[in-house]
Amino acid sequence: MDVVYFVSGSQGKWELSNGQERIGHIEQVGMAFEIRPVAGSILETMKTQSYSSKQEALEAIELHTGKDCKPAVE
What we know:
Blueprint: E1 3-8, E2 13-17, E3 22-29, E4 32-37, E5 50-51, H1 54-65, E6 68-71
Parallel strand pairs: 1-6
Antiparallel strand pairs: 1-2, 2-3, 3-4, 4-5
């Protein structure tokens, strides 16, 4: 897959998928955003850090995976 999809889950949380399985989520913690990978996923080796916006977190995922991040179509 060439795309990482995201969809809003519970408040302040965006689920991440490769189109076939869940690979993690972005979670808002206070005013910051953190990427929480699923073990064994393409995101597993991402360094834990806080981002100032959801967009910044999505850009970090794009850099890490080499894939575009796009909203999932429901």
